[in-house]
Design goal:
By secondary structure, the protein is an all-alpha fold. The chain is built from nine helices and no strands. Helix 2 packs across helix 6, helix 4 runs antiparallel to helix 5 and helix 5 runs antiparallel to helix 7.
């Protein structure tokens, strides 16, 4: 593939990933009280997860792989910023780490949590205490720390480095790079919601801004793909 093709593929990946994220998020919000249910107790969450049947499990399985759209998007962004090759190489690494971390965090739902949900329905009171401890531990480690805090922090660094690199490219309007930097800062702040509730409102706003910015960034990569380096 030539440079222009990589830019277009990257832009499409961002847009498709964003639209898929919105679709899955909407389904889970309507049928699983997502994302509020992430703070729920095992006694409430596991029966509801199991009650969703194969459809619920399939949606979670799809959701777990959606962060992978970020990787070709990052490669396309890198090809769009040839003046900042070293910076964008680092940005692509951060994005790849973020995608893997987010996938790992989400994969607990159609796998380990699904197995816990099956076991929970048949378990006695004492056994359920153990299952609840496992459920809470997995949420804390894979969900809060790996998927959310680590994944979102590294993704914010990708957006930050990409925004800075766009300022060095004549192909992009200056406002695009500045918006990228501004969103990156907001996204990084929102990642600290697991440390303090003070930034929870920022995290809630980011749920809507993330797919919006991915669409804007993807459209920019496609729109300005013909511009000379």
């Amino acid at each position: 593939m030539n440079d222009r093709t990589m830019r277009i593929v990257g832009g499409i990946s961002f847009i498709v990933g964003a639209l898929a994220f919105v679709s899955v998020f909407t389904f889970l919000a309507s049928n699983f009280d997502y994302p509020d249910i992430l703070d729920g107790a095992a006694a409430d969450v596991l029966p509801r997860l199991h009650g969703g049947g194969s459809a619920m499990r399939s949606v979670w399985a799809i959701y777990a792989f959606l962060p992978l759209f970020l990787i070709p998007g990052a490669v396309g962004a890198s090809f769009s910023c040839p003046s900042s090759r070293a910076r964008m190489t680092l940005a692509t690494i951060f994005c790849s780490i973020a995608a893997f971390a987010m996938c790992l965090g989400l994969m607990r739902w159609p796998t380990i949590h699904w197995a816990l949900a099956d076991a929970y329905l048949l378990a006695g009171d004492q056994t359920r205490l153990g299952l609840e401890a496992i459920f809470n531990g997995l949420n804390l480690y894979l969900g809060n720390y790996i998927g959310e805090f680590f994944g979102e922090s590294t993704l914010a660094l990708f957006f930050l480095l990409t925004g800075l690199s766009m300022l060095d490219e004549s192909r992009f309007p200056r406002w695009l790079g500045l918006c990228g930097i501004g969103f990156a800062v907001m996204f990084l702040v929102g990642a600290f919601r697991n440390v303090t509730n003070v930034v929870q409102i920022v995290a809630d706003i980011n749920n809507g801004l993330l797919p919006l910015w991915m669409i804007v960034l993807g459209a920019a990569l496609i729109r300005y793909s013909k511009a000379p380096d």
